[in-house]
Amino acid sequence: xxxxxxxxxxxxxxxxxxxxxxxxxxxxxxxxxxxxxxxxxxxxxxxxxxxxxxxxxxxxxxxxxxxxxxxxxxxxxxxxxxxxxxxxxxxxxxxxxxxxxxxxxxxxxxxxxxxxxxxxxxxxxxxxxxxxxxxxxxxxxxxxxxxxxxxxxxxxxxxxxxxxxxxxxxxxxxxxxxxxxxxxxxxxxxxxxxxxxxxxxxxxxxxxxxxxxxxxxxxxxxxxxxxxxxxxxxxxxxxxxxxxxxxxxxxxxxxxxxxxxxxxxxxxxxxxxxxxxxxxxxxxxxxxxxxxxxxxxxxxxxxxxxxxxxxxxxxxxxxxxxxxxxxxxxxxxxxxxxxxxxxxxxxxxxxxxxxxxxxxxxxx
Length: 364
Fold this sequence. Notes:
Distance between the termini: 46 Å
Strand order of the largest sheet: 2-1-5-6-7-4-3
Order of helices and strands: HHHHHHHHHEEEEHEEHHE
Structural class: alpha+beta
Helix content: 55-70%
Radius of gyration: 24 Å
């Protein structure tokens, strides 16, 4: 899996292409491990799109490495003698990766069929180990191999490597490849990549491909379509205004409600949303249930990457530190606190088909 951003004026290969491809793998496998871990026991409908995406990434990694094995390594070995230690290390990493990939594919087939909790835990662990080994390998490639490529491989030969990798993919997944790549590029990188595409490809992406990829990745991440997200945002604004006027400060079963203000992870702008909470150990425990919806709520995605948030509880306002609970602590407090106080949250989790995360807000 290679891309071509530009043809350098020097005639040397644009090795930064490979760095961008590596971003796809670095991000993609970590995301899959997290999505698997958050899928509820037995939710096969939720597991299917995640398994499809994991299979796509595994296939992409295989094609990427196959093109290197068949073309790049022989080319380099014919022109430069790398250090023996480097060769042995790369070979060992490839062998370890092959073992991780084989294990991941086997677990993926089982989990797709049953989505049982035990297999999900095994699969999430296997993908995490794959990602760790792959990261080590990619780091070495970028540090040790790409400088050799830049010095000893021509731009035309580098383009041939990309074409060999590209040709291994069925045409049906090209919109997925395109969309996945655009997600990890900067605006400048994306503009350079798009500029090199044939006109017909650009037109088809605008007319068909972009929408197809958006549908695909929403299913993987279990997100709402944009127009529904807009409705949810308006409802949150209304609820926030009512809260500040002293109306509607309790939720179902008289759970207390707080206002959480956190910066949007993409926009950087403050976002405020009312969330029910459970007092616990001097902090406030919140469940990212979204009323049992399949997508995780937007506030959770923002809080997960935030160092601090601002809370309003009744008429009191203060800053707090959010912490997403790990699986063991989450499972314990889900039973001891959430379900003990609000047993209907079990229905939310069943309806959502995912493990509902818990966040503990500790006053600063």
